[in-house]
Amino acid sequence: MIFSTRFYIINYKCNIYWFWDEWVPSAELLSLDEIVNTHLSFLEPRWCNFILNLPPNPDGKLDENIVHRLKEISQVWSPDLDRSSLPKQEPQIDKPITPEFASATSGKAEYAIDGHNDRYYYSVWESTDSLPQSITVDLGQKYCEINIITYVPKYNPVIIPMTEGSITSYKFSASIDSLNFKEIISGEWSGDTKM
User: pTM above 0.70?
Assistant: First the structure.
């Protein structure tokens, strides 16, 4: 974010130029020191992306004040090629499957498969009865080689991780006919806020 917070908030409006407006060429940018010593020096060792809020003008180009600041950055900063290697990454879902239907012993099962990432839209399946509880997910067809299922603990509406109500033990069973289920894996994990 090269622009100040004030710019980002004011600029987040709809107009014919998307995020650009006439005052962008004279906008107050974040200082070179703030960009390099506050943002880049903090994010770069952590292998993070630094997202720039740089709107192109109606000609599809960056305004001169933005280009000038980017040149300044390139003269004083470069990535640390001696930094530690990127940590081993957890397995990722290569081909996500969207379930067609869900039912649960209690609570609103559809919240478990609503497709929302729950960052600003708060919906999460929660049981409304005593344990044990279960949720049954209908994938709509037979799938072979499902090799990962992820669980994300709930967040409260102000985006703070919570451990209250976290699932700490699990048992997965599979069925082709929705009547006869065979257990395929079970286990436990910490009741923390990690996926």
Answer: no
Enclosing H/E stretch for 71: helix 64-76
Maximum distance among all alpha carbons in the chain? 68
Taking a C-beta distance cutoff of 8 angstroms, is the pair 149, 139 a contact? no
Query: Tens of pLDDT along 2-47?
Result: 443 333 333 344 455 567 888 889 888 889 998 899 888 888 888 8
Q: Which residues contact 16 (CB under 8 A, 6 or more apart)?
A: none
Measured between alpha carbons, how far is 163 from 189 in angstroms, rounded to an integer?
Answer: 12
Return the structure tokens found at 84.
């530690």
Rounded Cα distance, 21 and 57, in Å: 8
* The pair of three-digit structure tokens given for residue 34, joined into one six-digit string: 């703030």
- Res 74: pLDDT: 93
Q: Sign of the CA dihedral 87, 91, 94, 100?
A: negative
Place of tokens 């997965």: 172
CB 21 within 8 A of CB 11: yes
Q: What is the pLDDT of residue 131?
A: 85
- Nearest alpha carbon to residue 110 among 130, 141, 135: 135
- What confidence score (pLDDT) does residue 127 get? 84
Q: Which two tokens stand for residue 20?
A: 């650009």
Q: How far lies 19's CA from each of 10, 54, 174, in Å?
A: 10, 9, 48
Place of tokens 């409260």: 156
